[in-house]
Amino acid sequence: METPPQVRKILEKIAASTPEPLRLAMRIHFGSLPASAAFARQDVRWYLAALTRIYEPEDLMEFEEIPLRMESAACYLLEHDEDAHFINAASNVIGVADGVGACREKGVDAAAFSRKIMENARAEVASCTPGTHLCPYGLLERAYLRAVAARTPAASTAVILSLEGRFLKWAYVGDSGFAVLRRGKIIQRSQPQQNYFNCPYQLSSNGVNKVSDAAVGEIRLKVGDVVLVGSDGLFDNVFDSALEQFVQMGAALKLSAHFLASVIAGFAYKKARSSQESPFSVDCRERTGVTINGGKKDDITVIVGYVVE
């Protein structure tokens, strides 16, 4: 399948803005080039070191009464254009939804429910006065009920997170998820909810799963933490260890949230088209006993949130 023009344009922009030594270092680090490619290239070796370094943020004094916020940015690479997302920087709320592809196979617009849920949640957050308590579960429930009331077709997974004070709270249904990293290591990770292999919990107007099935929780954050949010197009194709390495690199090189999201999304896009083992192929083997090669071609949404005071 030919790369869609919109995706090709984004990938070209990512490549153009990524220094050539960094591109070589990433290929060496992830195994598509031999280590000898770094011979006599001090710049490439420097980036390789950044990829494997454990970032240790400065021991800055944190003032408990000062609330935290997230500097967030997204990258979206479409395959079927059925993902939807929103970021409200003022309220520190992030949402991602992924339309269920099986609906497309039945002739239904698989993007309808994912877009409607995110549209409803975005509108509710925007209508609130800054400082209003925003519960991710409540946001998801109200967004879902409005989508049902509008008789929206199709089905969708969804995740909503909000940062209030110093606590990140979440609610998710299905396999759209998130990870929280501290000093380059994952300290909190959503666990995909599946009815069976490749069939996640999903919200719809007349489905079995409801918002009451959502996984909810909260974690206290610190300055320097990184929040990654994405659809399964990210998590099906990129191992947690690689996500940690990208975040470590981002910290070492002081990459912007947008650039880091773009690099991770571009990597996921390539892994989806690779014959190498992926989280998707591992899950298939463990759940069904069937061995498949490579990743899973899908829409890829990646949101990176840097936690700052």
UniProtKB/TrEMBL annotation:
Task: Identify the cofactor(s).
Answer: Mg(2+); Mn(2+)
Alphabetical UniProt keywords: Hydrolase, Magnesium, Manganese, Metal-binding, Protein phosphatase
Instruction: Report whether Lyase shows up as a keyword of the record.
Output: no
Q: Which GO terms describe its molecular function?
A: metal ion binding; protein serine/threonine phosphatase activity
EC number(s) on record?
A: 3.1.3.16
Query: What SUPFAM superfamilies does this protein map onto?
Result: PP2C-like
Q: Where are the transmembrane segments?
A: none
Keyword Membrane belongs to the record = no
Catalytically driven reaction(s): O-phospho-L-threonyl-[protein] + H2O = L-threonyl-[protein] + phosphate; O-phospho-L-seryl-[protein] + H2O = L-seryl-[protein] + phosphate
First-level EC class: hydrolase
Which segments constitute the PPM-type phosphatase domain? 67-307
Similarity section: Belongs to the PP2C family.
Q: What is this protein called?
A: Protein phosphatase
Organism whose genome encodes this protein: Brachypodium distachyon
UniProt lists the gene as LOC100830884
